[in-house]
Amino acid sequence: MDLTAGDAITVTDSAGASRTYHVVDVFTVPDSTYWEEIQSRVTGYGESVVLQTCCGDNANYRIVVAD
Q1: Strand 8-12 relative to strand 49-55: parallel, antiparallel, unpaired?
Q2: Residues 28-67 as b or e (16 or more Cβ within 10 Å = b)
Q3: pLDDT beyond 90 at 13
């Protein structure tokens, strides 16, 4: 929850190979949001990882886009 733009995220697969991505955007998305409304913010970075987590009792979503 404390990630900000520029932070590094390293993902390691089951074989032990790792790849590092860097956060390019962090934002909160209300439940009523449609994919088309946020698609441009989470695509177009080439190979990337999108991390999503539920936030609080309101079930809002925080999305971190890493590239």
Answers
A1: unpaired
A2: ebeeeeeeeebeeebeebeeeeeeeeeeeeeeebbbbbbe
A3: yes
Taking the C-alpha atoms of residue 58 and residue 5, their distance in angstroms, rounded to an integer, is 25
Residue with tokens 């990882």: 49
Among candidate residues 40, 51, 45, 38, the one with its CA nearest the CA of residue 11: 51
Residue carrying structure tokens 């956060």: 23
Give the pair of three-digit tokens for residue 8: 């590094």
Q: 3-state SS string over 9-60?
A: EEEECCCCCEEEEEEEEEEEECCCCCHHHHHHHHCCCCCCEEEEEEECCCCE
Indicate the pTM of the whole model.
0.72
